[in-house]
């Protein structure tokens, strides 16, 4: 009797779960946010630069479901020659679809769990995968890498993204054998920072809001025009929803980019994204990984050193020497002050991403006017110990 009862209860629970998942799928497909949208000069919807929250209308479309055969053909059977990287989801392959489109295909790592193989749970998980793929692929923004679709066959899972040719910002900053960073002036780095900030701010303006949870320099890509695009938006949510339980729900991102509350309590929020963005800004201005020590006799990493420094002029020693004289003293100081604010250990003291967008936009405009069109005899660029001299 107990066995029969357990079987009945198990079947009922599975049915209820399946109905719930179907209901959630329907809700996602019908959901949209009615609100005011603002189109920027770049043709994308961003929060107001005045810091006002503006709802963004989200029109959901069904994600394209690729066949495994199609992806195998695109990557030449997942050839090592097409392997371009590896991330949290798994290996990343460059692929050429039959219609001529270049794509980045992420192949999920690891063998499927026993829960995944279980028939009822596998059915539910397939629906969840569809929901998340549908939701994430509907998020369209100039500064976000677009999720084109997914594939789920033979207990294997793949995500298909648009291909971004110039790769990650991290490669251009501190990649081995790269000389590209020598060409990235301060204005260009500001532009990259602004683009990435707009991408994150867009995620935070959605309804329901989407927290990235895995923002880092390696997840900021640049296209052929060096326009920044944030990658892997919502990927941690995707993994967490697909897996019934297990290590995928644990914090596995690069520790240095995680906010204190995430490392200690695993509490993700928009403000934890802001902290991660602060680490990104620090790497942009220093040209090196934030986990490095600022000097040979230091016991603190770059983040700890900046957080514990009470004299902004000391921080100037961490500025990337490859920037040369491509910045103004005032612009650099404002950039560093914004970076320090984002890196505040206290959640309440960190700014919002909409504020960060406004500040970066303002700093970039000022830098463009002062370093591009200079009045005769006006000293606009300073280095080293002179950096904060005339800005008090």
Automatic annotation (TrEMBL):
Gene3D superfamilies in alphabetical order: Phosphorylase Kinase, domain 1, Transferase(Phosphotransferase) domain 1
SUPFAM superfamilies membership: Protein kinase-like (PK-like) (SSF56112)
Membrane topology per record: Single-pass membrane protein
Catalytic activity field: L-seryl-[protein] + ATP = O-phospho-L-seryl-[protein] + ADP + H(+); L-threonyl-[protein] + ATP = O-phospho-L-threonyl-[protein] + ADP + H(+)
Main EC class the enzyme belongs to: transferase
Alphabetical keyword list: ATP-binding, Cell membrane, Kinase, Membrane, Nucleotide-binding, Serine/threonine-protein kinase, Transferase, Transmembrane, Transmembrane helix
Keyword Transmembrane belongs to the record: yes
Binding-site list for ATP: 107
Any one GO MF annotation of this record: ATP binding
Sequence intervals crossing the membrane: 6-30
Enzyme Commission number, as recorded: 2.7.11.1
GO cellular component, one term: plasma membrane
Domain annotation Protein kinase: ranges: 78-364
Subcellular locations according to the entry: Cell membrane
Family statement: Belongs to the protein kinase superfamily.
Protein name per UniProt: non-specific serine/threonine protein kinase
Species this protein is from: Gossypium davidsonii
